[in-house]
Design goal:
The chain contains nine helices and seven strands; from the N terminus they run E-H-E-H-E-H-E-H-H-E-H-E-H-H-H-E. It is an alpha/beta fold. Helix 7 packs across helix 8.
């Protein structure tokens, strides 16, 4: 299947590791001009150097000017993005009874504010062109809130509400807005969550992983490349009639439809 990504420009947030890096690599391999970004000095440029038609930008999207700096760098390199992939690190694990208002503010600052700002910057050119893809890397917690991840559940649910509202507003302009929800995918973030659960429960990390795998019908953690393949499809031309959707890539972990 031709995804129609050749010559398109994709801006992938949080792409110096994990799911973001996997998505950026896949989009680049499909022919998109790809902008990678992250806070680790030089890491985005190092990855981009091994990809066709890619650049890397060192930027902290939590800084006030971070989103504008990233958008300007994208325009300078390839023009306005046709594809915007919203992604970033999740907040610390925490039980709902343990969080305070400062934690709530931090969750919104990390998971909502920079992404809304990037959408506001990218959307006008997409609507004018009659083609655009906005895809957010979410969490299965927006479907079934995850234990000990109260801050992630809170912030990601807020972003989901915004994006679902936006999807209906821009669909007639040829812009799709979707979410892709990972389950247990083998990334550093998943490893950190497993380690935190191990400390909290007094079990070994291996025991926590085995217990987690036992809840997944597929019988294993997912691979970043599998997740990235689903993302590339949603960013491609054949997915033009799919919008306002939260698609799970979780091996059957969440038992609802």
């Amino acid at each position: 299947m031709d995804l129609g990504l050749a010559g398109r420009t994709a801006l992938v947030c949080g792409s110096t590791g994990g799911l973001g890096e996997a998505i950026a690599r896949t989009l680049a391999e499909e022919g998109a001009n790809t902008v990678l970004c992250g806070r680790r000095a030089g890491r985005a440029a190092d990855i981009a150097g091994g990809l066709p038609r890619a650049v890397g930008v060192d930027v902290d999207l939590l800084h006030e000017n971070g989103p504008a700096e990233l958008f300007a760098a994208t325009v300078d390199a390839f023009g306005p993005p046709d594809i915007l992939v919203l992604n970033g690190p999740g907040p610390r694990p925490a039980a709902a009874a343990e969080i305070d208002i400062d934690d709530v503010d931090a969750a919104f600052e990390g998971l909502v504010r920079p992404h809304v700002r990037l959408v506001s910057l990218a959307l006008p050119a997409m609507r004018a062109a009659g083609w655009g893809r906005i895809l957010a890397v979410g969490s299965s917690g927006v479907v079934a809130p995850l234990p000990n991840l109260a801050l992630s559940n809170l912030g990601r649910a807020a972003l989901t509400g915004y994006l679902r509202t936006l999807a209906a507003e821009v669909a007639a302009d040829g812009v799709t807005v979707n979410l892709l929800l990972p389950g247990r995918i083998t990334t550093d973030r998943t490893a950190a969550i497993d380690a935190a659960n191990a400390r909290r429960s007094g079990r070994s990390v291996a025991e926590v992983e085995r217990a987690s795998v036992a809840t997944i019908p597929a019988g294993r953690y997912g691979r970043p490349a599998e997740f990235a393949a689903a993302a590339a499809f949603l960013c491609g031309a054949p997915a033009s009639y799919i919008t306002g959707v939260a698609l799970r890539c979780d091996g059957g972990l969440v038992r609802g439809l």
